[in-house]
Amino acid sequence: MLDAAGVHARLRDRFGEAIGPLTGSGRDAWQRVDAAQIALVCRFAKDDPALAFDCLSCLSGVDWPKREVIEVVYHLYSYRLRHWGVLKVETPRDAPGVPTVSGVWPAAEWPEREVFDLFGVVFDGHPDLRRLLMPEDWPGHPLRKDFVEPEEYHGISTSRASLLRP
Amino acid sequence: MSLLNTAPEMAITTRVDDLLNWTRKSSVWYMMFGLACCAIEMMQTGGPRADLERFGMAPRATPRVSDVLIVSGTLTLKMALRTKVLYDQMPAPKYVVSMGSCANCGGLFQLAYSVCDGVDKVIPVDVYVPGCPPRPEALTEGLVKLQAKIQRERWLVRAPETA
Ligand code: SF4
């Protein structure tokens, strides 16, 4: 079992500058990973006996309009060694693209589709990159901060005069 | 002589409309269309405790033999289009019961980007059952109200539908 610093040191040893400094503390401690290398880093994190991250427990996205980036966050867990790791990659907001990790953990397929659906991040090498939650012909990516809901969808108006709406 | 013994010779008079409506309202088959948490209450309503079958209502797994669509749960925009397709597959006369706040107006998710704010934006609704979720008693009452509506219909003399 490793703590966050141990996980970081192990990754740093192997990948050097592609791994950023350890930030935060406790279970939330995370490290930035060079986007182009994320699939390799994840492959190593899974196969290395000292890390043995056999579970991708969460894959999510964050939109940062001011910094012009979209972040993809990977929460890893090792059932064997019972330790955690958090990786983050950044990708430009106007042309977001990150290599897929679905070859490492097949479970990544659907979360990646979800991040593609809601943030528009294209996962290179993904076997079946379609929208997951929104309809196929939906315009835009709803979890981007500047997303504006269309007035109507196939003739269905998307709002209702109600007390909730100011 | 008891009433039962006279039954074979008895004649009952009724209006044809009333008789037909009575038979129709006594076998309203509902389509299983559970979309979210409300569906649990709908299943419960069909179960032995609330026992919808005593009203002649039985669940059906396909729209093609169903009389009523009970929309129980949150309707997303993606599902809304499919709901219309399912509704179109039901043979007329057909009815829709909107169950719960979500189906009525989008409920607590109505500001969400993915939710259709009420099933009546897609298909016509006959009975709205309020609640989040409505108890089985509430759904039962809604369906009894639907039966009353069916009994009142005058569809033999109705103006012919334009196809
Ligand atoms: S009305 Fe309430 S119980 Fe019913 S589907 Fe919506 S949130 Fe769930």
Quick recap of the structure?
The complex is a heterodimer of chains A (166) and B (163). Chain A has 166 residues and is an alpha/beta fold. Helices cover 20% and strands 28% of the residues of chain A.
Of all chain pairs, the largest interface belongs to: A-B, 17 and 16 residues
Q: Spell out which ligands are present.
A: iron/sulfur cluster
Q: What portion of the residues of chain B fall into strands of 2 or more residues?
A: 5-15%
Specify the structural class of chain B. Answer: alpha/beta
Shape summary of chain A: elongated
Quaternary form:
heterodimer
Q: Profile the largest sheet of chain A.
A: 5 strands, mixed
Strand-and-helix sequence of chain A, N→C? HEEHEEEEHEEE
Q: How is this structure best described in words?
A:
The complex is a heterodimer of chains A (166) and B (163). Chain A contains 3 helices and 9 strands; from the N terminus they run αββαββββαβββ. Chain A starts with a helix and ends in a 9-residue tail after the last strand. In chain A, the strands form 3 sheets. Chain A has a 5-stranded mixed beta sheet with strand order 1-2-5-4-3, with helices on one face. A two-stranded parallel sheet of chain A has the order 6-7. Helix content of chain A is 20%, strand content 28%. The longest helix of chain A has 12 residues, at 4-15. Chain A is of the alpha/beta class. Chain A has helices at residues 4-15, 38-47, 109-119; strands at residues 19-23, 30-33, 55-64, 69-77, 84-92, 97-99, 122-124, 152-153, 156-157. In chain A, strand 1 (19-23) and strand 2 form a beta hairpin. The mean pLDDT of chain A is 90. Chain A is elongated. With 163 residues, chain B is an alpha/beta fold. Chain B has 6 helices and 5 strands; from the N terminus they run H-H-E-H-E-E-H-E-H-E-H. Chain B has a 5-stranded parallel beta sheet with strand order 2-1-3-4-5. In chain B, helix 5 (100-105) links the parallel strand 4 (95-99) and strand 5 (127-129). The longest helix of chain B is centred in the C-terminal third of the chain and has 17 residues, at 136-152. Chain B is globular. The interface between A and B is medium-sized, with 17 and 16 residues. Bound molecules: iron/sulfur cluster.
